[in-house]
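Thread: Helix-turn-helix domain-containing protein, structure

OP (GT): Posting the sequence first so everyone is looking at the same thing. Length is 293 residues per the record. Can we get the structure tokens written out before standup tomorrow? I want them in the notebook alongside the other entries.
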Amino acid sequence: MKDFFGQVIKVAGSTFTLAEAETYHALNSFHSHLELELIYVKSGEGIFSIGDTSKRISGGTMILIGANVPHLFKFEANRYYDYATKHGKTIVPLQLLTLHFDPNKLGSDFLALPENALLNALLDQAKQGLFINEQVKQVVLERLQVLEHAAGYERLPQLLLLLNKIAEDQGTSISERSEKKPFKKIDETRLSMIYLYTMDNFYKEIKLKDIANIIHMVPNAFCHYFRSRTGKTYFEFLILVRIEHACKLLRENNDSITSVCDDSGFTNISNFNRYFKLQTGTTPLEYRRTYRQ
């Protein structure tokens, strides 16, 4: 895999790449690669998209992404108090730690060994994307430090130990949809355009003909195309993006629920409450109270 990173910690003589960076190697673009990818956001904010799901991420987030799985990161250079008016701008620095490893380099015979059952389960689960839970994340960060300084003969055992530590906890699946193969290049381009337009405009009305026009399709063809590639309708996806933003606002400020509703792109408070509870299992007010306890 081409090295896009600013500072490579370990590459020569290794079966993996461990790197620190202040930019993501494929920012704002759906892409996939042969390597399993572990990414730790030291600092930064943005949206991560995989399969049928988009999730807001921030400093402290750790994600494992399966080999050959299409995904997209959109990190924000700035944070705004009001996204619609771009009022209250503050800069959001980005710092990433990433690990890339091609599991095929282990060989099919090795992976088929019964001792690797847990590892194989992890490789399969990672096709949906995994949030690494807090307790395990600290262990993984410690193992990454060991891996950084390991001698050549120690690297592979240390890498396998790290992956098995993640596998023991299993993590939290991000997408309901397990991706089995990469998108075609045209799909990567089209879906990147759709997702980025949505992330930049979710807080206002998005008409079907406008989003379809982004990839030069008529609305009916667009609806069929989007659902066939993601497993969701476009408006189901749009609601997910809006609810993710609403959750962020509820965590970060004291604005009224009506204000959060409006700033997240909903025009009806009843619909907002209904969709919010469908996605989170709780009401907006209960969500804020629980988060701040």
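GT: Both are above now. Quick notes for whoever picks this up: Residues 84 and 203 are 7 Å apart (CA to CA). The longest strand covers residues 36-43.
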